[in-house]
């Protein structure tokens, strides 16, 4: 059994009381066993936090690792044109190696900016490469191949046969679900209703029940997307997903900006989860999600950066600030306090993934997914009476992340990511 002791940290637990504890953490293998001041424990490895801030790792509930290499493409297009003109042709051009390096680059950036769990959506092909990169990086991830057996202007290389799409997803699931000590899970990823036949979606519904895994899709991101769904299926997005029996607690909807009352009611009553992607929603001019209202309704909402071309980086610090700013400018300064935002980035994400008993906070019995932030700031030092929640949400940057641990393993230390050098190795 490997043991670690992190000494002398300011621990933002993100537990139900948002407690901050000054002290130590004892970790055995991948589990937090003890938290307290001056723990009297022997450990194989002792890490002196030197009074730095220890936070749970961020949980990002919508990422496309396969798009990391597409950064800087199409700054001025809205969703459907952006997909048709830029993203789908680029995904069609991916090969085994480019998916691997795209994923590794994204994973390095995610770890460097304190993210320890992702819900990811890959492209149609070469998903095996992404899983290999995830396994090597140490990231905790739910991921799957994208599914698209329908839609105009989809490049030939991305057009799938329905049964083949389902079968390939199951093959990947059987190989990767539960891999790496349970750190990797499979999630079915029908891209969005626009690119999926009803037969495919019904197949996903049945298989996700049989294998007890998540379904990760995009819904109600953009007005043209909604119009396409209504024209073809005669229903709004979420109503249609409910109609075919997909609206259940294992369904995670990315964006969900333009929900009407009926759709919000379905999401709430069926326990469907939502991911907010503020940077992407602004850059693609998709719209402003009704996050405060969704939270008030008791709907679980996480945060995700989406793909790199949607917002140009995969940094939760930026997404947290955007989450607050975009609501404040509409609804006033008190609509999104920093505790709520930091909660969405940690426990909120864990709840979206149904992993609230395993990750998202620093509590005894939880998995050791942690980030150590160096917030020392000489020109205001020692004003530590500043609200730490506010400092993390509004002032911290990815450059402040010093050490990251996932599943009890140190994946970044002294700002060096264990796997990052490999991302520079182009064949
Ligand atoms: N909707 C369908 N596919 C995508 C995608 O790749 N990115 C975003 N932001 N929305 C989508
Ligand atoms: Fe997306």
UniProtKB/TrEMBL annotation:
It catalyses: S-adenosyl-L-homocysteine + H2O + H(+) = S-inosyl-L-homocysteine + NH4(+); S-methyl-5'-thioadenosine + H2O + H(+) = S-methyl-5'-thioinosine + NH4(+). Its cofactor is Zn(2+). Zn(2+) binds at residues 62, 64, 218, 306. Substrate binds at residues 91, 221, 306. GO terms for molecular function: 5'-methylthioadenosine deaminase activity; metal ion binding; S-adenosylhomocysteine deaminase activity. Residues 53-411 form the Amidohydrolase-related domain. InterPro entries: Amidohydro-rel, Deaminase_MtaD/DadD, Metal-dep_hydrolase_composite, Metal_Hydrolase, MTA/SAH_deaminase. Keywords: Hydrolase, Metal-binding, Zinc. Gene3D superfamilies: Metal-dependent hydrolases, Urease, subunit C, domain 1. Pfam families: Amidohydro_1. It comes from the Bacteria. Its EC number is 3.5.4.28, 3.5.4.31. Binds 1 zinc ion per subunit. Catalyzes the deamination of 5-methylthioadenosine and S-adenosyl-L-homocysteine into 5-methylthioinosine and S-inosyl-L-homocysteine, respectively. Is also able to deaminate adenosine. HAMAP family: MTA_SAH_deamin. NCBIfam families: PRK07228.1. Belongs to the metallo-dependent hydrolases superfamily. MTA/SAH deaminase family. This is 5-methylthioadenosine/S-adenosylhomocysteine deaminase. It comes from Cohnella lupini.
């Amino acid at each position: 059994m490997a043991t670690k002791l992190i000494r002398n940290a300011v621990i933002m637990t993100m537990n139900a009381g948002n407690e901050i504890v000054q002290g130590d953490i004892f970790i055995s293998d991948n589990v937090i066993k003890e938290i307290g001041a001056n723990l009297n424990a022997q450990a194989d490895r002792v890490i002196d936090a030197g009074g730095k801030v220890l936070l749970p790792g961020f949980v990002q509930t919508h990422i496309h690792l396969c798009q990391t290499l597409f950064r800087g493409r199409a700054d001025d297009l809205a969703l459907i044109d952006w997909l048709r003109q830029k993203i789908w042709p680029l995904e069609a051009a991916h090969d085994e190696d480019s998916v691997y390096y795209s994923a590794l680059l994204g994973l390095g950036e995610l770890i460097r900016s304190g993210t320890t769990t992702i819900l990811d959506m890959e492209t149609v092909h070469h998903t095996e490469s992404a899983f290999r990169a995830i396994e090597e990086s140490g990231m905790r991830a739910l991921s799957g191949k994208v599914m698209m057996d329908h839609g105009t202007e989809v490049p030939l290389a991305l057009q799938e046969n329905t049964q083949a799409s389902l079968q390939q997803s199951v093959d990947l699931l059987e190989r990767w679900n539960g891999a790496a000590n349970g750190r990797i899970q499979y999630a079915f990823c029908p891209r969005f209703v626009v690119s999926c036949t009803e037969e495919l979606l019904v197949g996903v519904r049945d298989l996700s029940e049989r294998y007890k895994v998540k379904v990760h899709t995009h819904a109600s991101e953009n007005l043209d997307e909604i119009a396409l769904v209504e024209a073809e299926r005669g229903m709004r997005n979420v109503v249609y997903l409910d109609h075919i029996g997909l609206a259940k607690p294992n369904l995670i909807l990315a964006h969900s900006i333009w929900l009407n009352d009926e759709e919000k009611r379905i999401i709430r009553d069926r326990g469907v989860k939502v991911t907010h992607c503020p940077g992407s929603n602004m850059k693609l001019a998709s719209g402003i999600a009704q996050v405060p209202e969704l939270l008030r309704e008791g709907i679980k909402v996480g945060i995700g950066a989406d793909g790199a071309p949607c917002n140009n980086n995969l940094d939760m610090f930026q997404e947290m600030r955007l989450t607050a700013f975009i609501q404040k400018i509409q609804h006033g300064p008190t609509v999104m306090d920093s505790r709520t935002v930091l909660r969405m980035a940690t426990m909120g994400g864990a709840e979206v993934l149904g992993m609230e008993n395993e990750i998202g906070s620093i509590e005894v019995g939880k998995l050791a997914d942690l980030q150590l932030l160096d917030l020392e700031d000489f020109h205001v030092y020692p004003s530590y009476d500043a609200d730490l929640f506010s400092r993390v949400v509004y002032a911290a940057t990815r450059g402040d992340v010093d050490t990251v641990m996932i599943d009890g393993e140190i994946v970044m230390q002294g700002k060096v990511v264990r796997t990052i050098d490999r991302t520079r190795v182009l064949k």
